[in-house]
């Protein structure tokens, strides 16, 4: 096949020389071109080339399957190079790829998962655990929580009742997971996972889990990854489908980071509507403090003191909705 192709190309070139001569044009160049073509043809033949590892020859070059490189696909890429295991886990090659041997308290394919003891069963009372996730220069650590999240907050009854669906960071926690990185220093507890958290560029993340001596719950599980671009904070923060009706049974959180020397000023815009009933807020949005906002009257702007982080929480019950909210914020130097 290679041979046939070669002759066809040479024939074509001879024809073009003939045409060129007819027009009395630069014959020399065309002859050079023919020599060029036959030279490159002798190099681009697949006749004498055997590609290893299932590679196939095309125009004299091996096209290599995944995980192989080299002129003849003879070099197997090492799946452990660079080390895909986080937390200094040890990588070993296997038939299917690699496995990570993770340090104590790190789990997941790439040692990229951490969790409270016994998750998703109850953690033990009197637990303190810490993890350090090492940052990589120019990258951002992204933390993502699993849906099952239950850490004792102060709303539970003395008999270790259900955790509330409504917990706020930094207060109201008997047990907690604490995330410390750069300007972030927040505690989480309650019955719903925090939204994803992005650390600052290159920063390590310190995580502390602490349970007191009474009442344990299912705990938390999160994974982390190093990403190239931070996920920008959303602004405005709006309820799903706004200004159309938001869904039932929704719990969403947003973390707005404080900055030293700046207050954060939150303002509600446009339509505001959250279900209110005989017993208060059935659906609500909560900003920074424990104040729950609902009804149809837009709340006054909220100013968060300098340096403090602000949580925004949106919680709806299992029936009846309204139009929701549109919340913008800005940093004000003070
Ligand atoms: C990785 O291997 C080294 C040397 O065998 C060992 O000392 C270390 O404990 C291992 N690390 C993990 C996380 O298993
Ligand atoms: C990390 O957790 C999130 C939330 O549970 C999940 O959507 C995502 O697939 C997980 N990533 C990995 C690599 O397991
Ligand atoms: C606690 O939650 C469970 C499951 O969601 C529910 O069946 C039970 O009634 C709740 N108990 C209390 C005291 O609210
Ligand atoms: C934690 O303590 C409570 C009593 O406060 C007890 O009922 C519960 O079984 C303990 N949990 C575990 C996992 O030991
Ligand atoms: C910023 O917050 C401080 C402390 O709460 C307050 O005294 C100050 O008036 C605020 N500044 C602005 C511009 O709202
Ligand atoms: C939310 O309010 C801002 C400020 O008024 C406005 O620019 C934006 O379009 C609004 N977004 C929605 C979805 O209504
Ligand atoms: Ca507890
Ligand atoms: Ca509702």
From TrEMBL:
Record flagged with keyword Signal:
yes
The answer to keyword Transcription applying to this record is: no
All residue ranges annotated as the CUB domain in the record: 102-227, 237-332
Query: What InterPro entries does its record include?
Result: CUB_dom, EGF, Sperma_CUB_dom_sf
Where's the EGF-like domain? 76-112
Entry keyword set: Disulfide bond, EGF-like domain, Repeat, Signal
Any Pfam family hit: CUB
Q: List the disulfide bonds.
A: 102-111
Domain of life from the UniProt record = Eukaryota
From which residue to which does the signal peptide run? 1-20
User: Which named protein is this?
Assistant: Uncharacterized protein
Taxonomic source organism:
Patella caerulea
